Amino acid sequence: VFSEGDVKREDVFVTSKLWNIFHRGEDVEAACDKTLNDLQLKYLDLYLIHWPVALQPGDNLFPMDKDGKFLMDSKTPPFSETWAAMEKLVESGKCKKYWTVQL
Question: Is pTM beyond 0.70 here?
Answer without folding.
Answer: yes
